[in-house]
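Worked example 2:
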Amino acid sequence: DTVTLSFELLRVTSPVPAAVEIYDLSGRRVRLVRQVEGTSGLVESVWDGRDDAGALVPPGTYLYRIAVQADGGEETSGGCIAVAY
């Protein structure tokens, strides 16, 4: 199974760095799902429950973080994802 994390970039006239990351509850980054230079529009990233090494993560709760570098600084958003087998 996978989860799709999506966000929309609004009023972006030139490409800006954006990243989608997954963290465990201890704050350790488990996976860099996507790093892009995006412009206005929808950005979708799919996480397959694997870490950066390609191994399935243990069942549990994980945090996702979406970060976009804008003219006024970094804008972030996040939430929780539950993984169960």
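The two ends are 10 Å apart (CA to CA). The chain is about 0% helix and 65% strand.
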